[in-house]
Structure formats: structure tokens, C-alpha cells
Amino acid sequence: MLTIAPEVDALARFGRALADPIRCRILLALHENPAHPADLADSLGISRTRLSNHLACLRDCGLVVAVPVGRRSRYELADSRLAHALDDLRTAVLAVETDKSCPEAEDKDCC
């Protein structure tokens, strides 16, 4: 049986999470500030149901956490190092080629 190194598994989960534009937008929004789901859905202009599905994916990938605040939950990046990784990825991709885009994948499976 083939075993996958923990580092490879972590990078694959991160890659799958970043493969969807909505999840990228969520991560970038949470990079700026933690947010409650309703506020996040409104600011991103997506339904709460759709946001909930994407947040579940990001939680399962280990990239975001839900922090209880009274009767509500606030979402934030799971680790401050993810903010640095997002910054590095964003600037590296922009520095390499600003006129390129990838066709969207038809596969919407998540983590």
C-alpha cells in the first residue's frame, strides 16, 4: 500500500481548497478579518447555504476554524502562517505572469 507523506497530504489539501474561486475568496476575506458566516455570505454575494458548504470543506481541509462567540460562530484562518502562505502565493503568482488564467476545473469535489 502506498503511503503519502504528511507534507504531501497537507499540500494536496491546500491545493484542493485553492482550486475553487469561492474558497479562494473566502480564504482571502478571512485573511483580512475573522467573520461570522452571515456577514461573510453578504460580503461575498453568495447564498448562506453555498457558503456553509465551502466553509465545511475548508474546515475539513484544516484551513479554517469556527470559534464560538456566544450563540454564533466566527470563522478565521486555522493558523497565522496560512496568512503568510496566502500572501506569498498571491504575490508569487502575480509576479510570474499577470496575463494568464487557468480554465476552471469541472470537478467540484473538495477535500
Automatic annotation (TrEMBL):
<keyword id="KW-0238">DNA-binding</keyword>
<dbReference type="GO" id="GO:0003700">
    <property type="term" value="F:DNA-binding transcription factor activity"/>
</dbReference>
<dbReference type="GO" id="GO:0010288">
    <property type="term" value="P:response to lead ion"/>
</dbReference>
<dbReference type="GO" id="GO:0097063">
    <property type="term" value="F:cadmium ion sensor activity"/>
</dbReference>
<dbReference type="InterPro" id="IPR036388">
    <property type="entry name" value="WH-like_DNA-bd_sf"/>
</dbReference>
<dbReference type="GO" id="GO:0003677">
    <property type="term" value="F:DNA binding"/>
</dbReference>
<feature type="domain" description="HTH arsR-type">
    <location>
        <begin position="3"/>
        <end position="100"/>
    </location>
</feature>
<dbReference type="GO" id="GO:0032791">
    <property type="term" value="F:lead ion binding"/>
</dbReference>
<dbReference type="InterPro" id="IPR001845">
    <property type="entry name" value="HTH_ArsR_DNA-bd_dom"/>
</dbReference>
<dbReference type="InterPro" id="IPR052543">
    <property type="entry name" value="HTH_Metal-responsive_Reg"/>
</dbReference>
<dbReference type="GO" id="GO:0046686">
    <property type="term" value="P:response to cadmium ion"/>
</dbReference>
<protein>
    <submittedName>
        <fullName>DNA-binding transcriptional ArsR family regulator</fullName>
    </submittedName>
</protein>
<dbReference type="InterPro" id="IPR036390">
    <property type="entry name" value="WH_DNA-bd_sf"/>
</dbReference>
<dbReference type="Pfam" id="PF01022">
    <property type="entry name" value="HTH_5"/>
</dbReference>
<dbReference type="InterPro" id="IPR011991">
    <property type="entry name" value="ArsR-like_HTH"/>
</dbReference>
